[in-house]
Amino acid sequence: MAALPKTSIALGFKIEPQSTKTYRYDFEAKRIVGTVDGLQAMVQAVRKAINTIRYSERIYSGGYGSEIHALIGRGLPYVEATIRQVLTETFQDDSRIKAIKKCKVERTTSDTLTVTAELLTEYGEIYLTHGLEG
Q1: For position 112, what pLDDT does the model report?
Q2: How far apart are CA 58 and CA 68, in angstroms?
Q3: How far apart are CA 87 and CA 117, in angstroms?
Q4: Which bin fits 37, alpha (ψ -120 to 50), beta or left (φ > 0)?
Q5: Helix, strand, or coil (residue 122)
Q6: Percent of the chain with pLDDT strictly greater than 90
Q7: With 70 as the cut, is the pLDDT of residue 113 above it?
Q8: Cβ-count burial of 131 within 10 angstroms (0-12 exposed, 13-18 middle, 19+ buried)?
Q9: Can you give the three-state secondary structure of 26-70, one letter per residue?
């Protein structure tokens, strides 16, 4: 059986990272105000991904969004055991997020848990805080 020939073709183009420049969303006023780039754009992307329920909007692929809402009403031990996996799945398709460094869950009131995490991105570190009420 003959082996396939080994060939290579120079395509003449260079692959460069895509810009993070995007519209700046004012979460409180719920409107677009200017643009944002770099670390601020990553903070916005993380916040948007964590607050979008996976599979809830047809505009997004099945890989976009979070299932963190499924942890609402669960006990502290369960959330502590699963939160890193939930965050990993939330950001697995975003190549700009390199690692989840620290991840912690605390009870802040009798019916609220607060999730904190450090995300290492190619633009710097992002400190995520997200509350789970119920």
Answers
A1: 93
A2: 19
A3: 9
A4: beta
A5: coil
A6: 74
A7: yes
A8: exposed
A9: ECCCCEEEEEECHHHHHHHHHHHHHHCECCCCCCCCCCCCECHHH
